[in-house]
Design goal:
- By secondary structure, the protein is α/β, with parallel strands linked by helices.
């Protein structure tokens, strides 16, 4: 009986296996256990998150061997969450972060270099300033730690109902603004509402010939960069005191005037485009920053990027291949066109921003202006020292000079001395 029971069990097992094989299609799908699953963290707002999810769904459908799973995280804590979880052996395989966060994450040792992920031609197909923003200096050499999928920079927004021809120079901008201002009206109308924060004005520092560092990274703010920096600070102080302009360090005041439709022009980042579209509707105009009349130089605002970065522990070849495929998918022209339609600024230069790329002519004109400006912009530094020491020092220098607490000469001297002392320290 013992041998018979084993015999019957073998017959039963054979029948079960035969039944299982008979229901499989002729080309069996890849088993779930063989599919590469990568977690992607991001902090995009809801509207942008939807287009990201749509793109991920397309990728998953066309790449059955891999699966990208999106997880949204709070924007405020995303960088620290990434640093903590990866250092503890976990975290996402991929993360979309703003490029200026890369330096902190690289210093924490949680990101993988991407110099081997794309060919030179693929990198060169992307907006150069956005690529520069995604590089972090390692042993004095720029290393790519993120692939830029969208970018952000500054431009002049204006209401086309009031400004028929956008100003091409700062002199023209200020003359137009003063002519449109009516302080006697209730509430007053401002031709120009300009938040004089450092991020919105530093592009003109370079136009005036100001410099913080030379090509070798040495501080030159108080030496060869002094004259231009002082002219820039003097110019900002004059704007601040011009009673025909709403040029202020109070960003809330500027936003309030714009939201109430009490201002006709402003300078702001590309990511704010939807807000101005809501204010001026189809009368929204966007143009590159006006050329500095005094020097006849094009301003060079910073260009920031949203980049895809990889977990430093991503050493599995199958996972790396899946990550590489997803990165290439996100910089493909079709994916970049979808990001453009969602109001993001695409980094892929092969997307020529033709009339066929976007039906919304107002949004398309804005995208062309942002790209033109970004091609004249500077990569926003991703280095941690640049943010924790240099940026805060320049903010203080600018505030002191604009408010009249220090003369431009005094403000530059103090900032130069502070940078030299701090950057000379270990």
């Amino acid at each position: 009986m013992h041998h018979q029971s084993w015999f019957y069990r073998l017959l039963l097992l054979g029948a079960l296996m035969l039944t299982a094989c008979s229901v499989l299609p002729s080309t069996a799908p890849v088993r779930t256990s063989e599919r590469v699953v990568l977690r992607l963290w991001h902090a995009w707002p809801a509207a942008d998150s939807r287009v990201l999810q749509s793109l991920v769904d397309q990728f998953n459908q066309t790449h059955p061997e891999s699966q990208i799973v999106i997880q949204s995280r709070p924007a405020v804590s995303l960088p620290s969450d990434v640093a903590t979880t990866i250092s503890e052996g976990g975290g996402p395989h991929l993360v979309i972060v703003q490029s200026h966060m890369l330096g902190m994450l690289v210093q924490a040792g949680v990101l993988r270099s991407l110099d081997d992920m794309l060919s030179n031609s693929e990198v060169n197909s992307l907006l150069p300033a956005a690529v520069g923003a995604a590089q972090v200096s390692v042993s004095g050499q720029p290393v790519l730690f993120g692939v830029p999928i969208t970018f952000d920079t500054l431009a002049l927004y204006y209401n086309r109902a009031n400004v028929l021809q956008p100003p091409s120079s700062t002199e023209e901008m200020l003359l137009t603004a003063r002519a449109l201002t009516n302080r006697n009206q209730t509430p007053p109308v401002w031709g120009l509402a300009y938040n004089l924060s450092l991020d919105r004005t530093i592009g003109y520092l370079y136009a005036f010939g100001g410099r913080v560092f030379d090509e070798n990274g040495a501080v030159v703010l108080g030496s060869s960069g002094r004259a231009g920096t002082e002219r820039w600070l003097t110019w900002l102080s004059q704007l601040y005191r011009d009673e025909q302009l709403l040029a202020t360090l109070d960003g809330v005041l500027v936003d309030r005037a714009l939201q109430a439709r009490e201002a006709i022009m402003t300078i702001d980042w590309a990511h704010a485009q939807a807000e101005y579209r809501a204010i001026w509707n189809d009368q929204l105009g966007v143009t590159p920053l006006p050329v500095l009349s005094a020097e006849d130089r094009v301003p060079q605002p910073y260009v920031q990027a949203d980049v895809i970065a990889l977990n430093a522990r991503l050493d599995n070849q199958a996972e790396q291949a899946a990550a590489q495929a997803f990165i290439r998918f996100m910089i493909d022209v079709n994916s970049q066109r979808a990001l453009l339609a969602a109001g993001r600024q695409p980094t892929q230069l092969a997307l020529q921003l033709s009339d066929n790329d976007l039906a919304d002519s107002v949004q398309l004109a804005a995208a062309r202006a942002f790209r033109l400006q970004a091609q004249n912009g500077l990569p926003m530094p991703a280095d941690r020292v640049a943010h924790e020491i240099v940026w805060t020092t320049l903010v203080e220098m600018q505030l002191n000079a604009v408010r009249g607490l220090l003369t431009p000469e005094q403000a530059v001297t103090l900032a130069d001395e502070f940078l030299r002392s701090r950057l000379a320290s270990p």
